[in-house]
Amino acid sequence: MSADEEERETAAESSASVTSPESESESSPKPSEPTGAVAGDAPTDRPAPGDWLGRARAQLSGAGAMIVVLLVLLGFALVVQLRSTSTDPTLAAARQEDLVRILSDLESQEERLRQDIAALEESQRQLASGAQGRQAALEEATRRANELGILAGTLPARGPGLEIRFVAGAKPIRASALLDAVQELRGAGAEAMQIAGADGTPVRIVADTFFLDAENGISVRGRPMSGPYTITVIGDPTTMRTALNIPGGVVASVNGDGGNVIVQEREVADVSALSVPSDLKHARPVS
């Protein structure tokens, strides 16, 4: 072989052994692509980003549902309460002094109900105490009969209370003013009442007592009276005095007509007039 042929053969072998940069980049693995598992490498089965969110949502789903239900119920209750309060035509049209009187009456009724509950619980405890049960039952029946007798006006009563005197001014004392006074006293917890005119003869005030304007004064249960009028009432003096003196109440009304209402507290007020029960024509007890 000549020297020229040897040089050409040597150049061809050299060109075959050298590769271009493009072929190297195509044959070598890219950094972003996995190169396969190698012995001794740790497993790489990490959860996808969405997997832990799904597990968290599953854990919170029970508590979240309960919270949502409670919030919905609370909101519904608030809406119902607001609607019932805002749509009450009586309270919406009432004057401020009427609202004050309604609030005072409700507070008095609440206090009386609390006392009634406490008394009934004590009675229940005594009735369930074994040997003393019969005696406690007899005492409870007697006490209840006395209370009903006072409320019905068939028994006299005595206790702390007020004496209220109505004196006319330029205008006479109307029957409606006395009826308002009775209603305010009842709302304040009055337990027994009677009214007397100028002659001092009292008439017991009970559930069926009615007041009418008459020629020379008023008529109470059909009995004529002339002023000044005196109502004797048994109950809590402070509560009843407050009820009479609320803005727009009976005292303010009588004073506005030129009259005067004199309220005096009594440590012992006597309600001695008795009521004769009327015969019932239609009502019958339910057995």
TrEMBL record:
Keywords: Coiled coil, Membrane, Transmembrane, Transmembrane helix. This is Uncharacterized protein YlxW (UPF0749 family). It comes from the Bacteria. It comes from Micromonospora polyrhachis. The keyword Glycosyltransferase does not apply. The chain crosses the membrane at residues 60-80. Residues 96-126 form a coiled coil. Residues 1-50 are annotated as: Disordered. GO terms for cellular component: plasma membrane. Pfam families: DUF881.
